[in-house]
Amino acid sequence: MPIPDEKVEEVRTAADLVEVAEDYVQLKQSGSRYMGLCPFHNEDTPSFSVDPDQNLYYCFGCQRGGDVFKFVQEIEGVGFLEGVRMLADRYGIVLPEEGADSEAANEREAILHALRFAARFFYRRLTQSDRGRPALDYLRERGFAPETIKQFGLGFAPDEWDALLTAAEEEQIDPEILEKAGLVIERDDGSGYYDRYRGRIIFPIFSHIGKVLAFAGRILDPDDGRDQPKYINSPETEVYHKKEVLYGLHQAKRSIRQSDEVLLVEGYTDVISLSQAGVENVVASSGTALTEQQVAVLDRYANRALLLYDADEAGERAAMRGLERVMEAGVGAYAVELPDGNDPDDYVQEHGGDAFAAYIEEHRQDLPSFAYQQARRQGDLKMPEDRVEVQREIIGSVARIPDPNLRREYVN
Ligand SMILES: [Zn+2]
Description:
Layout: H1 5-14, H2 17-21, E1 28-30, E2 33-36, E3 48-51, E4 56-59, E5 65-67, H3 68-76, H4 80-90, H5 102-128, H6 133-141, H7 146-151, E6 155-157, H8 163-170, H9 175-180, E7 184-186, E8 193-195, E9 200-206, E10 212-219, E11 231-233, H10 249-259, E12 261-265, H11 268-276, E13 282-284, H12 292-299, E14 304-309, H13 313-328, E15 332-337, H14 344-351, H15 353-363, H16 367-377, H17 384-398, H18 404-411
Parallel strand pairs: 12-13, 12-14, 14-15
Antiparallel strand pairs: 1-2, 2-3, 3-4, 4-5, 6-9, 7-8, 9-10, 10-11
Helix pairs in contact: 3-4, 11-14, 13-16, 14-15, 16-17
This protein binds zinc ion (ZN).
């Protein structure tokens, strides 16, 4: 369903381009304009300008320019309608839903509201309560600075059955909505609900525009004797589709766009540690193998993806599949293995961000060299027949690259 023109104009009027652009660019006022480093090309001196009176932008370097809709389309890689919807969302303008009744839209809104409330609740419990102290101490010991904790919205769920439930009820948030948001679980006997996250450090999972969609809860003390999983994750909900979401994208997107490269790691803490150390273009596929939908999202932001994997057989297999998936989408794909079984979190805590950046620059492998290395390690290259077989597999993977020129490069 098209969006009525008067609604489009309402959004255009409400959307302040300076404010919108500042999500991606640091702007400084200069006369009647604002200037900053262009988010669309790499540069050292600012040539990106925003004219707040006309609500237009222009880059003197790459000549890109336009209105607030064009900006969102270009920076988010979305079409016109989705761009209008994103801005409408941000400025609280209700648009007619595509084919959906307004009841469904209201429920979605209510779920998002409950998630936002929960994120704030967990954050306050971590940073401002005595019960949260051990969790906060633990995060500090892991080297997370207060600004980092804030930036990633980390929190703490008290070890109680109804801490969140009670707080939400005081805010008139319906328990049924909490349940639909994945925050509480209905009791078997139907007598009510209880909190899903108890006694855990909370990692909110944001959408690429910074809406809280879900949570992961990590056990505070992995050896506390109770037989519990290390992580508990939100279930799939109306607003959370695990396959489409990349952890850390909201915080990373500016850096990904500027470097034209994205790092893929496995864990939430890998993302946070790297980002804190200044390696900001990093996301995680949050506990799943990299999906086609996630690659499609990355494709909007960068032309190259670098996969960091664990140096065990499972990690190597996942890396190979990931490389193929990324290449199929026409995005450049590289794999890096960190030395001595380090995960990115350990490595960067020990050696720092610059050493990490230098290491991954030097040790990245494209798919063919990665595949050869794996085969060599497994002893699969001794006989000519084995070598031909490995070659055949590589050619099979390369054949799926959509760009014929790039394909040819790989074959040579
Ligand atoms: Zn530019």
